[in-house]
Amino acid sequence: MLFSGFARRITSRTKTPTLRYQPHLHPAYSTRAEYKNKMSTGFEAERARITELAEAIKQLKTDGKPCDVELKEMLDLKKKVGQSTGKKDSGKGKIQLKTPKGTLDHGPSATLLRKQIFNTLENIFLKHGASTIDTPVFELKDILAGKYGEDSKLIYDLQDQGGELCSLRYDLTVPFARYLAMNSQPSMKRYHIGKVYRRDQPVMSKGRMREFYQCDFDIAGAYDAMVPDAEVLYIACEALTALDIGEFTIKLNHRKILDGIFELAGVPADKTRAISSAVDKLDKAPWTEVRKEMTVDKGLDGVIADEIGEYVGLKGKGWEVLEKLKSDDKLTAVKSAKEGLADMELLFGYLDVMGVLDKMSFDMSLARGLDYYTGIIYEAIHQSSAPPGFKTQPAVPAEASSSAPAPSKPKKAGEEDEVDESTVGVGSIAAGGRYDELVGMFSEAAGGKKGAGKVPCVGISVGVERVYSILLQKRKEREEREARGKETEVYIVSMGGNGLLKERMALAKDLWDGGIKAEFMYKNKPKPNAQLDACDRDQTPFTVILGPSEVETGTAKVRRQLGKEGGTTEGETVQRSELVEFLKRKLAEL
Amino acid sequence: MLFSGFARRITSRTKTPTLRYQPHLHPAYSTRAEYKNKMSTGFEAERARITELAEAIKQLKTDGKPCDVELKEMLDLKKKVGQSTGKKDSGKGKIQLKTPKGTLDHGPSATLLRKQIFNTLENIFLKHGASTIDTPVFELKDILAGKYGEDSKLIYDLQDQGGELCSLRYDLTVPFARYLAMNSQPSMKRYHIGKVYRRDQPVMSKGRMREFYQCDFDIAGAYDAMVPDAEVLYIACEALTALDIGEFTIKLNHRKILDGIFELAGVPADKTRAISSAVDKLDKAPWTEVRKEMTVDKGLDGVIADEIGEYVGLKGKGWEVLEKLKSDDKLTAVKSAKEGLADMELLFGYLDVMGVLDKMSFDMSLARGLDYYTGIIYEAIHQSSAPPGFKTQPAVPAEASSSAPAPSKPKKAGEEDEVDESTVGVGSIAAGGRYDELVGMFSEAAGGKKGAGKVPCVGISVGVERVYSILLQKRKEREEREARGKETEVYIVSMGGNGLLKERMALAKDLWDGGIKAEFMYKNKPKPNAQLDACDRDQTPFTVILGPSEVETGTAKVRRQLGKEGGTTEGETVQRSELVEFLKRKLAEL
């Protein structure tokens, strides 16, 4: 629907301005009726008068007579009524002109910059044979239930208005897994750019929002070990390079190796998750702090902690760290560790062939999403956000070292095992890993045979909002003029004459039909300066000037606009018949 | 976040599989605690065993040992527990793998076709100097309140989880007006393509969905009469022509003229809305039926109805209908009618200059959104949905006639004064009009000075879903192969050798770096036919074939794929060093 119901709005307000039932604010009234009944008292006179006025105004309008006086009285009355009830309702008599907490309007130039980011990423995904899907912005509550652990409290639920219980999507991965399971699709290379929703504490200044974009690329399907994984990491490098955000490093680790280390050290199974989430803090906190968390907070035996410490500080160039671990007989004796190391050896070989191995840092302290991922995990770190002492160029220390990174502020709650696209200032600008069981779990939960619906997946999510703020910052540093937000190429200006409206219209039509982006002022007799100002404001590159003489001689004067300061060029007189081609040539030269 | 919390999901399910509290389903238990308490009884043994198994499985995994048996037992137990409680919960033991009622997943080819529609429209809007904005998918409840009259019941509300009350947007117009008022923006040419939400009764077969796209273009600002209005109508013609959906006609009318007619006929002010909504049915029902609704259902004096009937059957070419009305002294004696006719005269003059007047039909029976619009209103009708006897080519009957259109099924409820983008089969494929007061009302409701925040607007909304189904239909009729949904240009195939995985990877990297869309099979030793089938399935135009001899001689064989039936061309052997350029040339020739 376009714009119906406006006058109805007046009417409804007129009839029952005080009766909006807001149970959350009126625990006292358990039913709408009860509330109405209570609220209807008072202001009868005002409401009656408002109804009167509404009728009168309608009549006056019908008669085409002015009704300002009546309208004003009605509006004042409605404010009075609205106000006093408004106080009861929400502490405000007026409606608030704002977007909901944690959400923003993206204006033209912000939208343009985001679109550029999306196009860059999209072109790369397409280059790799990906297709895209578009899933609903809300899912059945059960689909999301239990997927996000303690973060589930951040999920937006839709009100139960009868029918199904739904929630706004929290990410794009669970809907993707649901899609694959629902369609029994055994394999797919897909990307999805869309908004997701989290009732998190917004930090506008940091770009942490409740509504924000995610950009996911995933490869689903049963393939040979580490082959799709290698392509996903190649794509990550390709994407972050194409986005031109500056230096980055991709931290790599393997869930099975971490499992092996914990087993070797003797971490009790029931402590694995707690300990790994402690390990994950090593990129933000020094070992001593993390060790304290393990032993004091989480009651791990100090000896075990120290054994872990020997490993998790280890990071560096892929081959070097790998050799170091492979030569560790204690570790390689653990089956899962051995398997993980074999995977990494394969992966590094592939990344070598693809020429992106030097962007990787094999980092034993990376533990994100441990209980979720089933294979490799990775996190791309942007130079601007790497903690002090964390080198991003060269990608890794000259040789494998086991020095713990320098201290820095600890992560916020709820960020333990994720890159939150809404968070700026945390290291990750992209993250992901292999998750081989999510799709199968959907199939089984829906009653499918165990294992039948299993679809192994590996994927990555680019932190769009993070990339956006980095690019915005770069733009500011370069003192670039804000993006135009519109693409008008030609502004048609009338000088003298009688405004020449129809001549400008006819000219605009010619340009539009010729595929040229053109505007003119919607006035019969616009002032020359008003037109030129609009042209400067929008940074429109060319003006076509029409005056009586041009009309008479079937010509038009074309000027290159050089902006407020730069002024314009002399201008050339062009035959109307040749104008479109002339302008196309000029525009091509820009 | 990418994919955290999966194992946590098991855990949480394990610990409390039966305790999801669903108040709407358990009126009996007024508190979560009470419910928990009740529900916890029974299945203790099973739940205990499930916890045991979960631990065991974790340990087995840590040890890298198989745990299928344990996993199966656990899943079976969870189904058992889940099931019996599930019955209590929602009548189902398994989760449903589906999207919420009235929503759809758009697969790759559907998404591609929609993107083509959006690009076509976007390019046209940009050509006219429009910029785009991106507003949140939900707004404060108060912003939407009272804007949609009785249709407000179709608004999705977010659950009150503490904090503000929000609703999913119902259209893109109210958010736009809110945006203008909030930013005190006096003028803007904007387009917005986005999803909107209506808890309507979905009719999948007709494409009436609860989540669907809208594509709006609006010009806001105080300008000279009918100038932006003319451009919006020009854009409507440009857009519908560019979309290549076939013949269409744009029905035009003016609110003030209708007001004048009602006044002239003597319709009581309080009946205006009811009567105009009856008039609006004339494109679906014969006059006799509409007259009956006016007189019998709505108690209008038969004489008045007949007087209205004399006018509202009138439609035809702009100038002809206009002359007819202008020569009607009774009508022109009514101020508002006179004003409306003056507007139409101006408009037709402008549309004439822009060369689109012949697409218009001045139709006195068009009354949509009467109480909302303040000026011209219009509705674009596609040939496929015009009621029988309604000619679309030529745009209008040879001469102005007052013949009422042939009967046809009456509109569904809630469609009185809107084009519902989610509805297929109803005439409109685009609709809009002038609405000069919505923005001002926001400013005033927010406490601004009367009239201070007034921003006149005129706009149009294209029925994207309607256009989509028309194009899909055309595609089917042309028996076109479904759109690929992916754009892969080259598939790298290995023949013989040892699978040549790394050679294929290296080749892929070269092609990607060269900007060529390329894929290869993620297998060490893929079968030649498996690779060629994938290539045919995706309609990939070229294969690059690598065999031991090619690798040895530093060459590759390029083949044009002609699909399953067509087979392939002979194939040319190309030097690896020249491959990228060679393929680029070949692709350019496609």
TrEMBL record, chains A, B:
It is found in: Cytoplasm. One of its GO terms (molecular function) is histidine-tRNA ligase activity. One of its GO terms (biological process) is mitochondrial translation. Its EC number is 6.1.1.21. SUPFAM superfamilies: Class II aaRS ABD-related, Class II aaRS and biotin synthetases. It catalyses: tRNA(His) + L-histidine + ATP = L-histidyl-tRNA(His) + AMP + diphosphate + H(+). Gene3D superfamilies: Anticodon-binding domain, Bira Bifunctional Protein, Domain 2. Residues 394-406 have a biased composition (Low complexity). InterPro entries: aa-tRNA-synth_II (IPR006195), aa-tRNA-synth_II/BPL/LPL (IPR045864), Anticodon-bd (IPR004154), Anticodon-bd_dom_sf (IPR036621), HisRS-like_core (IPR041715), HisRS_anticodon (IPR033656). Residues 80-101, 389-423 are annotated as: Disordered. It is an enzyme of class 6 (ligase). Pfam families: HGTP_anticodon, tRNA-synt_His. GO terms for cellular component: cytosol; mitochondrion. CDD domains: HisRS-like_core, HisRS_anticodon. Keywords: Aminoacyl-tRNA synthetase, ATP-binding, Cytoplasm, Ligase, Nucleotide-binding, Protein biosynthesis. Residues 113-473 form the Aminoacyl-transfer RNA synthetases class-II family profile domain. It comes from the Eukaryota. Catalyzes the aminoacylation of histidyl-tRNA in both the cytoplasm and the mitochondrion. Belongs to the class-II aminoacyl-tRNA synthetase family. This is Histidine--tRNA ligase, mitochondrial. It comes from Filobasidium floriforme.
